[in-house]
Design a protein that fits this description.
Layout (H helix, E strand, L loop, with lengths): L1 E3 L2 E3 L1 H16 L4 H14 L7 H12 L1
Antiparallel strand pairs: 1-2
Helix pairs in contact: 1-3
């Protein structure tokens, strides 16, 4: 577990989040697709958040 901001999150999730952020800031070829997927997720989960396993699955999908 690692502390990020005020939250404790699993190391794997930290790595996935950093990879996703790196790809977005580097302008990776998947950026448009990733942003589209993230936007769709945001609309689907408006006002809520999926459970930890689902969030990690989404991160894995976005960085693949």
């Amino acid at each position: 577990m690692a502390m990020v901001g005020l939250f404790w999150i699993a190391e794997g999730k930290v790595d996935l989040s950093r990879t996703l952020l790196s790809r977005l800031t580097e302008g990776a070829a998947t950026m448009a697709t990733t942003l589209a997927a993230m936007s769709a997720w945001g609309r689907a989960w408006e006002g809520g958040s999926p459970r930890r396993a689902e969030r990690e699955r989404l991160l894995r999908e976005w960085v693949s």
